[in-house]
Amino acid sequence: MIDMKANLVSATSRQGICFKNAQAQILSTCDLQEGDYWHLEFEYGCLFVEYVIPSNQSYQDSLLMDEKRGFWSWWKYQWMLDNQQLIDAGMIGIEPYSQQKKAMCNDPLLEARLLDFLSI
What we know:
By secondary structure, the chain is an all-alpha fold. It is about 70% helix and about 0% strand.
């Protein structure tokens, strides 16, 4: 008897595969090195925190450096969602990837999502 559950792929695994494929497409289409890609993700994550919490340096530092707060996992997920949206909209390669992603740094909808995530 064949175990059908053994052949099932979890939703998390499917999403991870989708995100990895999107990342590979972006690296290829935009002629980016993986290190440059990760640098943008990190730099813009820091800029986003500065945008959302402009006047509280100690809270910014806590959010960026305390792994238990979960910011970087949250940011990576948002980054990957945005990648997929850019691909689905046919926007990859039209203008520099860094400019497209910089729009995330002052996105009011993304700000609301973060504040909801942090329950502020």
